[in-house]
Amino acid sequence: MLPLGAWRICHQLVTEPLRSCDWREATVNRLSRLHFCNRAARATVVVSRVCRPACARGLFAAITRSRTKNSKLPSSRTPLAVKPALLVLGAVALLAAVAFLGSALTPAGSSRARRFSVAETASKSAPNPLAGRLSKVYGTNIPASRYGTEVADLEDEGTNIAGEQISELSPLRAAAFTGPEDAYRRYSERWIAHALADTQTLEHALAAGQRTAAMAAWEATWSDYLHLGAVYLNGEVEIANRAIDGTPGELPGGSSDPRFTGLHRIEMGLWSGESLASLIGFDVRMQHDLAKLSGVLQRVEMTPLEYATRSHEILEDAQRDLLSGMDVPRSRQGVLGTAAGLAATEEVFHTLEPLLSGRENTEGEVRDELLMLHGVLASIRARHDGRYPSLSQLGAFEREQLNGYVAGALSALQEMPGTLETKARVPVPKLPAPSQAEEAAEREAEKTAEGEP
Fold first, then answer.
1. Residues near 335 by Cβ (< 8 Å), separated by ≥ 6?
2. Distance of CA 23 to CAs 38, 44, 71, 77, 193, Å?
3. CB count in 10 Å sphere of residue 266
4. CB neighbours (10 Å) of residue 98?
5. What residue ranges do the domains of the chain occupy?
6. Residue 403 to residue 326: CA distance in whole angstroms
């Protein structure tokens, strides 16, 4: 047995080195495990020198067991050869990458250039057009310092910095309007056929002495004719239109002029109480004029500008001549005529939709406005038992609403000719700079106006 003092000395020599060792850290860090083992070994040597060997071994074993009771010393079975193996594997991968890169960049052993190699194609390439320092935006003659200003002016006002009007839309080919115009001709043929059928109904009513039936037949015939819409052109079409739908205000003799025939001559006779038999001749002549117009429309030449502008002019005529009652002073059927004009406008717009697609927002704006106007006319008709009322029967609110929506449609339709332009805009000539004498005179005039001596 050792004395108590010797045991305390041995306990202190062994436990102090062990107390400073972090066992949990040793589970992660192999160096900590080695550190612990070294300090424990040194402690054992010290104990063996102070105590007898048997007691020292027993003491060390007891202390070690008490330390490892709750936290076991981690195993150090991780092979030390792992690191060298990883280094060797990384070196092999690096050498393989270098060898692959070198083989890709090394020229072929043959002195003969391959068909699509750089050496084969370089001699045939054109000189680089971008060589050197460029001062203008590529593809234009605009200096780079001014290009941003040009684009900003174009977006804001449609003019360039020189004050010239320009458009960001490329002009359309005139041949692109052939399809829409042919579609309109087919449409017009159908409505001329409807009008001819209704003129025959009108003739029968006049011959039978039925004024109310004759009035209804006249309204149907007039509405059919206004569905044509785009007949207001020059040349033969204009002459035929004046004979069919002309008003007395266009003639020197007024309503008594012998050239006043057609729809409005029959309207005057029906609503003024003239003999129905006396109106049959005008109806027969109108049938002849409608048949003639059908042949004229098949060979008439329409320019793209005339056709694109017509969509706006149809409703413009309805607003000015029909809703005011100027062209229908007796029947007062301005709402009926406006509805027919809207149908003609929608047809012209429909034929031009393929050309309008993707060119600004004109297509969407026109479509929305026409739909709203169509809805207003449908609501007015529904409130009057399914018939379009005369201007005298139209209420004040209905009149204001109808005029407002017609104005909205016209505002959208006026953008169509510019959107469908076939020619580049002609620059507006700049005003010449004033001479020195003109500038001096202008300054004198300003001084005089301001009261300066």
1. 323, 377, 380, 388, 389, 390, 391, 394, 402
2. 14, 19, 7, 17, 107
3. 27
4. 10
5. 4-67, 142-171, 177-419
6. 15
User: What pTM did the predictor assign?
Assistant: 0.60
Span 224-238, mean pLDDT?
79
**Token pair belonging to 34:** 């080695």
Q: What is the pLDDT of residues 393-404, one digit of tens each?
A: 999 999 999 999
**Which of 35-39, 111-115, 146-150 is the most confident on average?**
146-150
Q: Which superfamily does CATH assign the domain made up of 177-419 to?
A: M75 peptidase, HXXE motif (1.20.1420.20)
Q: Please, which residues have CB within 8 angstroms of residue 425's CB and are 6 or more apart in sequence?
A: 165, 166, 167
Q: Measured between alpha carbons, how far is 143 from 147 in angstroms, rounded to an integer?
A: 6
pLDDT at 23 over 80: no
CA atoms of 141 and 164, how far apart (whole Å): 16
State pLDDT tens for residues 367-387.
999 999 999 999 999 999 999
Contact 262, 320 (CB under 8 A): no
Q: Which residue has the tokens 């700049």?
A: 430
* Residue whose C-alpha is closest to residue 293's, from 242, 256, 350: 242
By residue count, the chain amounts to 453
